[in-house]
Amino acid sequence: MKALIIIAILVAMGLIYLRYKRENDIKKMLFSSMILIFIIGLAILGNTMRILIPLFLAHIIALILAYGGLVYYIVRDKKQWILWLLPLLTLIVYVLLAWIGNEHIIWFPS
């Protein structure tokens, strides 16, 4: 599994580099690189969700979709914002569930 993750990252970096060499579009290269870094960062943050297995699996699927959206952007030059924001949505749901689950914290004292 770890090898697949590393290969996927290297494939994305290779595609970014090849498209940059073909088109000489520095703006697209930087944007693609930032989206790749964003997806990797969300994957690292997602490890905190292992407590809730169904939400963690949803996060993994969202990361795979976001990676697919990145590859689609690199190849077809069409931005897929909703796919890139899906992993962030799963993290927000996790934070909300953790916030609601902490009943011992009094947010509004009576």
Write the layout of secondary structure elements.
Layout: H1 2-23, H2 26-45, H3 53-76, H4 81-101
Helix pairs in contact: 1-2, 1-3, 2-3, 2-4, 3-4
Percentage of residues assigned to helices: over 70%
Q: What is the overall number of helices?
A: 4
Residue-averaged pLDDT, rounded? Answer: 88
Number of β-strand runs: 0
How do the SSEs run, as a string of H and E?
A: HHHH
Give an overview of the whole structure:
By secondary structure, this protein is mostly helical. The longest helix has 24 residues, at 53-76. The protein has four helices and no strands. The protein has helices at 2-23, 26-45, 53-76, 81-101. The model has no long low-confidence stretch (mean pLDDT 88). Helix 1 (2-23) runs antiparallel to helix 2 (26-45) and helix 1 runs parallel beside helix 3.
TL;DR of this structure?
By secondary structure, this protein is mainly α. It is 79% helix and 0% strand. Helix 2 runs parallel beside helix 4 (81-101).
Salient structural properties:
mainly alpha; about 80% helix; elongated
